[in-house]
Amino acid sequence: MSVVNTQLEDPARATEIGAEVYMPVGPVAQAGPGQRRYTALGVHVLDGSTVFIKDVWRDKRRLFFEAALYEEAHKEQVLSGLMTVEAHGYVLDETRKPIRTPRIAAKDSDESGAESGRCKMRIVTKDVGRPLESIRSLRHFLCVMYDACAVQRNLYRRSRILHRDISDSNIMVAPDTNKYRNRNMRGYAEVRFVNQVLAKDKNANPDPACLLVDLGNGADLKVERNEQVLKERT
C-alpha cells in the first residue's frame, strides 16, 4: 500500500495486488483511535472495475484463517448468498516478507502470557453489496433478513461452519449483477431462499436477496481445538 497525493488533506492509499493497482473510493483518513483493520472499495486504475479490500492484523494465536473458511464453504460447489474471495494472503514488505508486529509481553505477565504478535493479511472480493440503509421497503428488508438466515443454515449444514459475528454491516443487500445471480442459480441451497418459497414453480433456482460477508470470527466445527487456541475476539 502506497500513499499518493500527499499534498492533499486526505491522501489516498493505492493498493497493489499482484500486478493490479487499485485506488480507494473517497478519502480514507479517519479520525479517532487506531484500528486493527482497514476496509475500502478499490477502483482499478486501468479498467475501472471495483473490488472490496479488507486488511486485518491477524492475531497469530487464532486457529482459523478467514479466506480458508470461504474456500471450505465453496468447496466443489459455490454456496449461494455467501461472499467469494478473489485474492488473499499475507501483506509483504519491500523485502517480500510478511508484515508483522513485534512480540511484546503484557504487563505483569509471564512469558506464557506474552502477546504473540499479529500479521497483516488481506482479502479481496469482487462481490460488492449494498448496505442495509439502502433498502426502501419493509418487504425488501424482510427478504434480505430471511435469506441471510438461510445462508447461515446452509453454511452450517454443508460445511459445519458458524459465522459467529452477525451484524448489520455483515449482511449486505445482494449485488445487482447478472454475474452474482448466475453464480447463485447453480449454488448450494438446501435451505430454500425466499424467492423459492414464494415461487409457484417449486423447482425455482435460488436468487438470494442478500450477500453474507465477513467470516473473520467464523469457526469450522469439524476442526478440533485445544486450550491454547485464542477463544475471545481481539
From TrEMBL:
One Pfam entry name: Pkinase_fungal
One annotated GO molecular function is: kinase activity
What are the Fungal-type protein kinase domain coordinates in residue numbering?
A: 47-223
Which keywords does the record carry?
Kinase, Transferase
Q: What is this protein called?
A: Other 1 protein kinase
What SUPFAM superfamilies does its record include? Protein kinase-like (PK-like)
